[in-house]
């Protein structure tokens, strides 16, 4: 099997994985939710406001007020079920992709370290 065929099979396996499916379902729920996109945009706007305030040498008290508001918005995002599920789904997918990359790196490096490519019996790369 050549590398293009192997990459195609890997891509298909990733697309069918539970981690990818959970993330995509959570993303769809986030998009369809009335509140979640608003919370996400408010958070992004506060991030921009904080960076811009730092660049503009805003008073320390004002920066702290923006930072506190940003932290409260982050807490709200972490607690809202739809955004929480999205973040958890994304994290699960990213962890899976990190494992895939670790296995690929292992074989590209010549298979050093005794990895069999099967994570079920390994506690080393996580």
Characterization of the model:
With 126 residues, the chain is an all-alpha fold. The protein has a domain at 33-107. The protein is 77% helix and 0% strand. It has five helices and no strands.
Total helices: the number is 5
Round the mean pLDDT to the nearest integer and report it: 91
Runs with pLDDT <50, length 5+?
Answer: none
Overall 3D shape: elongated
What oligomeric assembly is this protein in? single chain
Short account of what is shown:
With 126 residues, the chain is an all-alpha fold. Helices cover 77% and strands 0% of the residues.
State the main characteristics.
77% helix, 5 helices, mainly alpha, 126 residues
Indicate the topology.
Layout lengths: L2 H14 L1 H15 L3 H20 L4 H20 L1 H28 L18
Helix pairs in contact: 2-5, 3-4
